[in-house]
Design brief:
The chain folds into 3 domains: 5-189, 3-Layer(aba) Sandwich (Rossmann fold); 198-389, HUPs (Rossmann fold); 402-503, GMP Synthetase, Chain A, domain 3, CATH 3.30.300. It is built from 15 helices and 18 strands. It has helices spanning 16-24, 39-44, 83-91, 178-189, 198-213, 226-239, 257-268, 279-286, 292-318, 330-333, 355-359, 372-381, 386-389, 409-428, 481-494, and strands at residues 5-10, 29-34, 49-52, 78-81, 95-111, 125-138, 144-148, 153-158, 163-166, 218-222, 243-249, 273-277, 323-325, 362-364, 437-451, 454-467, 475-476, 498-503. Strands 2-1-3-4-9-8-7-5-6 form a 9-stranded mixed sheet, sandwiched between helices. Helix 14 packs antiparallel against helix 15. The longest helix is centred in the middle third of the chain and has 27 residues, at 292-318. Residues 335-352 have low confidence and may be disordered. The structure holds xanthosine-5'-monophosphate (XMP). Xanthosine-5'-monophosphate (XMP) binds next to loops.
Amino acid sequence: MDTQTIVILDFGSQYTQLIARRIRELNVFSVVLPCTAPLAEIEAYKPLGVILSGGPSSVYDADAPKADLHILDLPAPMLGICYGLHFIVHHLGGKVRTAPKREYGHAEVTIEDTSSALFAGMPPTIQVWMSHGDEALELPQGFRCTAITSNALAGIANEERRIWAVQFHPEVHHTPLGAQLIRNFVFNICGAAGDWTPAHFIETTVANIRAKVGKGHVICGLSGGVDSSVAAMLVHKAIGPQLTCIFVNNGVLRKNEFISVQKNLRDKLGLNIVAVDASERFLSKLAGVTDPETKRKIIGGEFIAVFDDEAARIAEQTGGVEWLVQGTLYPDVIESSSVKGPSQTIKSHHNVGGLPELMKLKLIEPLRDLFKDEVRRIGRDMGMPEDVLGRQPFPGPGLAVRILGEVTPERVALLQEADEIVVTEIKAAGLYNKIWQSFAVLLPVMSVGVMGDQRTYAYTAAVRAVHSEDGMTADWAPLPHEVLKRISSRIVNEVRGINRVVYDITSKPPGTIEWE
Ligand code: XMP
């Protein structure tokens, strides 16, 4: 089945992902490709429409990012945004120059041609967000101006060629009617049906995986998090027993996680999981190590070794493994560096980054066009439990980077207990899904306390809870005092070995979310 797709070509704008998001909000499928994508790749999508994104460069610079100029002759309607407008003007015979007045921030646009399909239903003046230093001075033949600001041209169109373009950014919230403009393009101009739903996505993806994999065998490293679980579930739906998931207990998982992940994914959803309890192997390697980066390297290296062993075993049983599933998401793939070429940066997931090359595996990345919230929608539609879908991010090196100093089995057990209390209380307060991450950290700081008639001398737990969009920046969460009080009193009373609880009130930057 063909999915109606709007192709977005990325010229390096920080807003490109927002264009895709706005389109998905309309239940229309879109995909972002680097501007250097070959014409054949773009045409393979049979695009319903093509959008040229903004970008930081000047179109007349020698090293300006460029797309195959044949895209300007594609039959699909085209919308240029900012740099996209300059690209169209420059390459179709018009003139772009450095503007005498640069426009950054809020601006008012007057719509000169209210009959333009792109501005349908809009008032004669609209508030927009501008971010440009160049302007179109002369328009190519057949184009007309459709909108202006007091300084410059703000919109152009050539209906015959089915090309529209705006100087401002309709994709950002600061352009309040921007969503309507995108809606006009997608529905009125491109004629999209707006029927892209999770079910539709699942159906298409499952069919594609089936066709791609054939009779081959596939492995997947499960972390228990939402991305790898949903990716595995899609492949499971497609090829069932040809998929084997590997779930490794590295000894620094959260309390009961080794069991609960198996319950959720194997018992409830039927995934074929090989669960490997390698905790002793990891913990013995971690003994005596206090340096954070060394801990990370040990865990990463050990994970690859364990995974490799298991994969070899599976390969022996199945006659060979050809494919590796990864839960790569759209924001992981699309970096602004995509203007440098189609070689996209792929984030290494769950420490299996080096594995595809090492084992000569081909990749299946069913989520690489999606955002996290869309992945959750897909997971929900496949009946996956909220425990899995709503899980807060958890670092690959696990509790090892939350135990400051040496990681010992006793310290892991202490932190697991304290962490469990933090998570339980945050959930009970109805805050778990509103917080990016919430957890406990074990500090190797001993202090004196008193319990009953006895003096204690024990460890300190730090509680950390942060709000964040993507983990890149974070604000410490102002947890209600009542919740902090319950967490503190439960940890000190229930976890023998911790007698003091502190709350971390550091944002990122300058702090980091994890303590190591
Ligand atoms: P920081 O501590 O750098 O964390 O503010 C940002 C986000 O990344 C997660 N994190 C990691 N994830 N391996 C991972 O898979 C790691 O080594 C790692 N270090 C940090 C962290 O939990 C937060 O969401």
